[in-house]
Amino acid sequence: MHPSLLQDSVRGCPKEIPHNEKLLSLKYESLDYDNSENQLFLEEERRMSFLGFKCLEISRWVICGLIGFLTGLIACCIDIAVENLAGVKYYVVKQNIEKFTEVGGLSISLILWAVLNSAFVMVGAVIVAFFEPGAAGSGIPQIKCYLNGVKIPRVVRLKTLVVKVCGVICSVAGGLAVGKEGPMIHSGAVVAAGVSQGRSTSLKKDFKIFEYFRRDTEKRDFVSAGAAAGVSAAFGAPVGGVLFSLEEGASFWNQMLTWRIFFASMISTFTLNFFLSIYNNKPGDLSSPGLINFGRFESDVSVCLPKPCVISVYRVSSPKPCVVSLSTECLVLNPVLSLCLQSV
Questions:
Q1: Distance (Å, rounded) from C-alpha 271 to C-alpha 288?
Q2: Do residues 195 and 67 make contact, with C-beta atoms less than 8 angstroms apart?
Q3: pLDDT, one tens digit for every residue, the chain (344 residues)
Q4: Residues carrying CATH 1.10.3080.10, the chain
Q5: Distance (Å, whole) CA 235 – CA 181
Q6: What CATH code would you report for 52-279?
Q7: End-to-end alpha carbon distance in the chain
């Protein structure tokens, strides 16, 4: 045989998979996202009455509502815990600064600041590393894999949820440059996986409910709703949660699933908003739809914008600068615009 032909045949042979890659692939298996439409399955579907189908559909909506409620509640707990821990940290550092300012010991305050942040971060790292390594990271890649058919061990367990919540609280309170979007997506997915199955493998408890939905196809749809509810709770954007699941996560979609996921996202945002209003002693003031918070800005200055459209048109069409007087009265721009506003 010619040497070039021998070389081409050797190149065409499949390479042997390294031993460590074999061990890694053994950890994962695929989820069954195809319904096996065999004779038993078809007979079971025929025996189900119209009322039974209606009850199943209502159950799907109820489960999505529970997913949204619990996800919003978890987001509320995270926000309150971070606010209180950060408040304690800032209070201690502030007292230390006031104590050592006159004697010139601000370096001690800096060391105290670093120690407190390191302590929070260390606690979060320890509980993840030693109790549940599956809670490491944002959780978005794992949920994307799950929604596309890759079964990652312990990714939607209750223990993973608890460690994830504690980890993100400690990380944010410790001042790390991390956010709550990824952990909220993971948390919502875990909530959805547990509620939709009516049982908990971590607690070894079976509640004997929602047994019909103990299939990979049904569980996948609810996990999509949980991921969307997590995005909705993080940003206060129900439509954004639906679009995240549609564009970034799920590969299996239908029209009814869109409405159920949107319902879960709305419930999640409303739950977070409602409980935060109670916590802030302003029941019914639904002005905190998400976890993004830039602090409170207290000012007695009120700005009256009676005709923002007129102002916008004037600013675009006029080459002159638009001067706004911040007073308790209405806008005073220039005589021409004032006349326009009065006439309108």
A1: 11
A2: yes
A3: 555 554 555 455 555 556 555 555 666 777 777 777 778 878 877 888 888 889 989 999 999 999 999 999 999 999 999 999 999 999 999 988 888 777 777 888 889 999 999 999 999 999 999 999 888 888 898 999 888 888 888 889 999 999 999 999 999 999 888 888 889 999 999 999 999 998 888 788 888 888 888 888 889 899 999 999 999 998 888 898 999 988 887 888 888 899 999 999 999 999 998 998 888 888 877 766 666 666 565 655 444 445 455 555 555 555 555 544 434 334 444 444 444 444 44
A4: 52-279
A5: 8
A6: 1.10.3080.10
A7: 93
